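Ticket #4471: complex job returned nothing on first submit. Input attached below:
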Amino acid sequence: MILTCFVALLLGSISPPGNVAARDVPNDGGGSIEVTWTRSADSTVVSYHVLRQAQGSEQWETLGFVGRRSLSYVDDGARNGVQYRYEVIAESNTETTEAPPSGYAVASSQWFDTNTIPALVGTVVLSFILLYFISRARWDKKLFIRRISGLDAVDEALGRATEMGRPTLYVPGLSSIADVATIAALNILGEVAKKTAKFGTPLIVPNTDPIVYTVAREIVKESYTTAGRPDAFTQDIVFFVTDQQFAFAAAVDGIMTRERPATNFLIGMFFAEALILAETGASTGAVQIAGTDAVSQLPFFITACDYTLIGEELYAASAYLSREPLLLGAIKGQDYSKALIVGLIVLGTLLALLAGLPVLKYL
Amino acid sequence: MQKRLPLILVLVTGVFGAVAFFIPHHAVQAADEAMRNDVQRIIAAFSLVLGVGSILTHHFNKIQHRASNWQYSWITVITLFVSAVIGLFGGIDPARPGVLPTHIGNFSFHIQTLYMNMMIPLGATMFSLLAFFMASAAYRAFRARNLSATLLLAAAFVLMLGSVPLGRMIFHPLPSFAEWILAVPNTAAKRGINFGIQLGVLATSLKILLGIERGWLGGG
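Support reply: We reran it on our side without changes. The output follows.
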């Protein structure tokens, strides 16, 4: 009897956590409710035990335990539309004390993620600039576009291959069609194929992705037709090799050393094989034009290739080669967008520097 | 219609993909996930058949026309068929055997064994070549032909020396200077390039969605 009274006295002697509240996690696809509370005033608390009860149910189910410094818990197993309330129990090594349960909360899916507002504003502003210059290109035919030496060299490189009677090799990167760099590489392939069809230069296009192979084959076929040489297109021009990275590198190195192309285009997304391909190509004496947006591979291409399209130049290439006014307008738009970003960076830097000035405290 | 249909498909799926980024609702996310994974996988499965067809056509043509090194084409074709038969009917590994026996005594030739003992070492061999190519590329790059190349040479010299204990022994602040080169001018240049790349991606995506860029359709 005395022992029971002692235990009863002990129970509830540590202070409970306060203000237990539950709310739907904002900006998510539903299924999550966040429980928050204020810390127990008692320093002997070692953890908090979080429990959940669905409306209409008698049972409390344990969700988990968190450390004494935690002041929130996300229940990511909630069902949308079901009302839940939560209880948080403070636990020391010998005692437990529960706080009054939270009010009911319901998990729901949101239709807009407010965290993406800056991305949305940036996309809208930059898209507006690009679209303005694309539409301007319809009537302003004299848009000045800076020279890109790597693209100016395409005709010269293909002409060299034609004169030497050697083929041109075009590798559209090692990534999938989901990569925008691959799409850019395929756009350039279309222009290069038109020129090889016109010059009668053999073209070799090995591929590492079956979808990219299918698209590349159709592009080259269409380009040969556009150039008035549908008869020159054969199934052997564009072919699938393997989806294994280094097996592909070995195959392309083999093509470079056996077929000895006069011109190599290495355009698209490349990984560790970039230098293996570029150095082998350089050793065969081919003129090499590379282009990638893989920043880590750019130094290798710059070192081993004659011309390198750096980053954005890759995306400007098809417009530059085709001289299509609407496409050129987009390049102009890119340049102005870049100027805007640089302006914002400079402004941000100045404001960050000025923020430290004491005079601003009085404004 | 042959060109309009792909353009409409690209516009609808492209706009949906972009909009899905801003909408966390589970219905939209599930549809986006299905488009990105399931649909793309189904297309990839079909195109893989075209890919295998391409390999066979390419090599049979070489064999038929007795093109240079045509003998090697036989090796490709035979290994393609052998690995396909072992992979399809021989099971994946000894724990999961198939209908075909894939071992002779203790000698196993399951597809997993072949992959682990042939493909991976061969891939590693190609990757190892990178070390030699790096040396030859560095030799070419680090020649002071003009001002830019000289700057590159100087930066590389400082970075290499700053990364080894000898650098600190020669000049105490050298490692810090090397770190500064990497953290400040190098990062600034990389970020500048990245800004351009992202703008290029945005412009290319817009041009494709609006049907202005049709290079991927073969032009026109």
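Chain A touches chain B through 92 residues (CB under 8 Å). Closing as resolved unless it happens again.
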